[in-house]
Amino acid sequence: MDSSFNLQLKTLNIFQWNANSLYPKSTELQLLLSQEKIHICIISETWLSVNKIITMTNYNILRKDRNDSYGGLCVIAHNSIKILPLSFNHPNCNIEVLAVKILNIKGLSNIISIYCPPSLTTSQYDWDCIFRSFDTETMIVGDFNAHHLAWSYKTEPRGELIYSSYFDRDYVCLNDGKPTRIKLVNGVIQETSPDITFATTDISLKLTWQVTNESLGSDHIFIKIKYGFDSSHIWSKRRNFKEADWNKYKELSEAVFTDLNIKNDIQESYDLFESKINYIAEQSIPWIRTCQDPNTKFVPKPYWSSQLSMAVAARRLALSNLRRNPTPDNYREYITKMKQARGVIKKARNKGWRDFCSSIDHETSASDMWRKMRWLKGGRFSNRCVDKEKSIDLLRSLTPDSASEESPLFVNDFSVIEREFSLAELENCFKHKDTSPGGYSVEHIDKVCLSLRAQYGNCVKVTGLLGRPDMLFVFDASEVERVFRGEDAAPHRPSMPSLNYYKHTLRKDFFGAEENCAGVIAVHGESWAAFRTKVSRVALSAGAAAQYTVPVAEVADAFVERVRSIRNEDSETPGHFLNEVHKWSLESLGLIALDTRLGCFEAQEDSESMRLIHAVQTFFLSVGELELRAPWWRIYPTSMFKKYVAALDTILSVTLKHVEKALKECEANGGSKSLLQDLVTAAGPRVAAVAALDLFLVGIDTTSNAVASILYQLSLRPGVQERLYEEISKVLQDRPMKPGDVNQMPYLKACVKEVMRMYPVVIGNGRQLTKDTIICGYNIPKGTQVIFQHYVMGNSDEYFSNASEFRPERWMQRSSTQNHHAFASLPFGYGKRMCLGRRFAELEIHTVICKMVQAFKMEYHHEPMDYHIHPMYTPNGPIRLKLIER
Q: What is the rounded CA–CA span in Å between residue 481 and residue 793?
């Protein structure tokens, strides 16, 4: 059915601006956007901390904030413009990039906002990465802090690099040479042009660029860009069923369908039926426009007056005079007019707020009440004078008749107002929320933990985690050892809530059908202990992993051949190299857990192997969002949660199929010859299937990210590689690997341990205390979630001498004079909760590293990569290794 209509939007208005702190200017900015009818505003240097909330009526905001509350980018788009964030990981993390996809403007698809600090040293590669990533329908704008005669008054090295990058890639600079920044420095006016606008050649002729007479107090001036196009613009709308005339709808339906002539052609009959339904709906059900053109939507604020307009006009006139005649006197005059305008606007806004609150009484309608409460929730107001009688009446109207007469005064926590929301409103908030609480991003928990220890010491309690209990972070390895050694028979590990819900609620018919058969992940107590006992007898036996040495080596050989075939002309691995490592891990684990080669390197799109690959990838992409971010899925099934459940269902169905196959082979052969068959024989098919599922859930991403990290670290250290190559060559002597070979390679094992110490794929272990415990001198009550932060401890000189140095030898020759604490680095955990698949994971990792070093000399010729949580601790960027044949 028809669900859209066309409006002619001939010009798109865009602002580009460096705010030099957005929050104090946000109110004036919204007024300016309204007056200038701006569709998109691109801002650099917002100086917003992550927990600073900014909202603008009729606008959506996408932000990228820095932890130090400096720098920062945001794109503000009117509700009529549909935007989404684009994933773009720049190799130089100090160049701030916010990439935005525009969904409903024909011809303009991407806007890339840039802020590059003036003190940063950049390379040609840094700028090439930006300009070569987007080749059509793109604008790249921002404060580059760069100068070139193509857009400024002089040429500097950074400007040369940028000029070379954009000129070679079909971009056009829109700047006309006019200064975009005016500043008084040591009594001298400086006029510069650090704010630059680039556009691809296919849209450059449709864009006009102009420096305005407005800055809102920043030393950077607004740039107004207009994008003109002729095509129709699509706007969504929906039927207003509340206002429908259903009697008319019924009458028209009876009249139209009584004489409807059904054709022999099915498609023609369907089209006729659809047209009649649309005709009847047009006559009886009105439309609601869900977004409007800003030209018809903007309205002034209620408190706006002619006095404010005159103050703004005086400020703009002063800026215009300064631009024409840039003297210190004109600059000071501009600053005076700017402060005067800001003062009268603030005064009028405060008066409007007082009048607004005083208008509330017991006769206020429910709809007005909701509107006023939303205003309260979104605003931040201090020193407001509200009529006491009016405020008491308001609070009385919000509370039941049985409430105490002594009503609380208005306070900033809004506890009364925030108590009740409808589900529809709550869902709407989730869909449009562009920021998250807290001062840190999930991807950089490593830096958060370093900061916590530096600021608070070895034992830190973290509270206020949305939807999660308070946590205790421990950075003392001796305390970790004491807690681990004092555990009871069934240690409780903080569960994964989403997986716990899947196993014990959504699919309890399967996981609960047999006693003690829910697995070891997201399971605790007697059920966990009974299941682990069944599985550990097989999985942790001495020969369990050794029997897979030859087939795992064959998978590693296949991986080496795969890597050899996908190298580019520079012998470098492609940007999606990590995906190839994921395939290797899945192939290896499929061999161990399902007793079959999945064919991941050659899988066709419609094959069962590819279904499993996609399911595993979806699981790992989803689990980080569901477990580390605010758990909205507990309130309503988000799209991410639905994909997560579907992926788990797929993995479970495939594992069950292979378990049934193993069971038949056991019956046919009268014995077992693999881990899966051993599990089926020892514990039954359901236990084997659940164990295989758990191996998939925790064994693929951890192992593959560990291998990727090890390869990257080895590529940075040619001396370590050469010693490793000599050890491997001495042991293998050009023959295939056999059981026991890895035990003769102590340096290989030491290299793996050293990478896992400095860059553990899981940066911490956790426990939920099963009894009151003394930690760092504090009595920690039973039930507290405790996180043992091995990343911080493993990189501390207190526990490893010269911890910042990569020295595998520390694991081979331990000295009493050197710090080396056994509990500071535990990549596989400890005790009864230690990883069940440790032997298999170590076999896989050692084997593939051995094969890669044996085949290639690895080098890395790009910018060094930082690490981030995704959801494993992994290099933040494409792993482009140069592989030179040995």
A: 12
**Mean pLDDT in residue range 299-324:** 80
Per the DSSP assignment, residues forming a β-bridge with 541 are: none
- DSSP secondary structure code for residue 490 in this structure: S
Q: How far apart are CA 24 and CA 55, in angstroms?
A: 13
Q: pLDDT for 377-422, tens place per residue?
A: 444 334 444 455 555 555 555 444 443 444 333 333 334 333 444 4
Task: Write out the E strands in 109-230.
Answer: 110-115, 138-143, 171-173, 181-185, 188-192, 195-200, 207-211, 223-228
Q: Longest Cα pair distance anywhere in the chain, in angstroms?
A: 99
Per the listing, tokens 């950075």 go with: 475
Pairing of strands 785-788, 471-474: parallel
- What's the CA gap between 452 and 655, in Å, rounded? 42
Mean pLDDT, range 167-179, rounded to an integer: 86
For residues 239 and 392, what is the distance between their CA atoms, to the nearest angstrom? 41
The distance in angstroms from the start CA to the end CA of the chain is 63
Q: CA neighbours within 13 Å on the CB side: how many for 539? A: 25
* Spatial strand order in the sheet of 4-7: 4-7, 233-239, 287-289
Distance, in Å, from the CA atom of 531 to the CA atom of 519, rounded to the nearest integer, reads 6
Closest to 477 (Cα-Cα) out of 867, 819, 873: 819
Sign of the Cα torsion 780, 784, 790, 791 reads: negative
- Cα angle vertex 568, ends 562, 571, to 5°? 85
Nearest to 762, CA basis, from 709, 692, 815: 709
Instruction: Answer for the pair 494, 768: CB distance below 8 angstroms, yes or no.
Output: yes
For residue 694, give every residue at least 6 positions away whose Cβ sits within 8 Å of its Cβ, in sequence order, or none.
519, 520, 521, 836
Give the model confidence (pLDDT) of 806-831 as tens digits: 999 999 887 778 899 999 999 988 88
* Lowest-pLDDT range of 37-46, 60-69, 469-478, 709-718: 60-69
For 106, which DSSP code? T
Query: What would the mean pLDDT of 173-188 be, rounded to a whole number?
Result: 85
Segment holding 77, helix H or strand E: strand 73-78
- Residue range 854-869, pLDDT digits in tens: 999 999 988 888 898 8
Average of per-residue pLDDT across 777-804: 91
